[in-house]
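Contributing: when you submit paired examples, paste them exactly as shown. First protein:
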Amino acid sequence: MNEGSVRVYYGNGAGKSSAALGYALRAAADGKTAIIIQFLKAEVNYDYLSKLEPEIRIFRFERTKECFSELSSDEQEDEKLNIRNGVAFAKKVISTGECDLLILDEILGAVNEGIVPEEEVVSALSQAGEGMEVILTGRSLPDAIREVASSIYNITPEKEERDNAGI
């Protein structure tokens, strides 16, 4: 990718989405706009983020409230179309330069699940204009995406105890 930059947070540790959200808050504080598109995650109440609009906007295209991995095979097949709609929206955001920062939260999981081909993600990233930053999160990092990333952060727990809130 020649113009925009790609930051990746991946690994088995908790905090990848939180790191990306923190980056969005920092961008908003600098007068920039951010769009967050979530994939494969259970529905979370982010009503408090509406207070940050229009600087930060969050989208989730799946219709079910459960995490993708908890759905039946039939439900997963239905949700794949919704996920593809989210990818189409992400491509539109990139091609139009609609924001300064685009976060594709758990897009690497959608690639890992075979819902989104990694070549499609790489192709979309190559369309990002100068000054646009894109953050990708997920547990695994395919080689083709690794090649176009500007910054890569492997979030791996050294010691991890999660509280009841799952934070």
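Second protein:
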Amino acid sequence: MGVSEIAAAERVLVVRDWLRIAFSPPVVARGLKYAVIVGGILIAINHGDAILRQEVDSGRLAKMALTVLVPYLVSTSSSVSAIRQFSRRESAD
């Protein structure tokens, strides 16, 4: 196995580890909590007037979905990074 093949195999392991942590129940629950709270606030700020005027079309609904998705992804990636860093510290001790 060459150096590039070893590096590719290591990247696959890193991605699998990242996904395993990202889809773990505590990380998903935390991400959903932040998505609902922060996403709801952002939707109210950015789309509240259109909601009150009942001017919500499919384009605006797509934007609202992305508004909720962004805090979920930020929370999840932050949680995964923190867990991986903590795990590295624990294994180094």
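If you have annotations for the second protein, write them as plain sentences, like these:
Helices lie at 3-22, 25-52, 58-92.
The first helix runs from residue 3 to 22.
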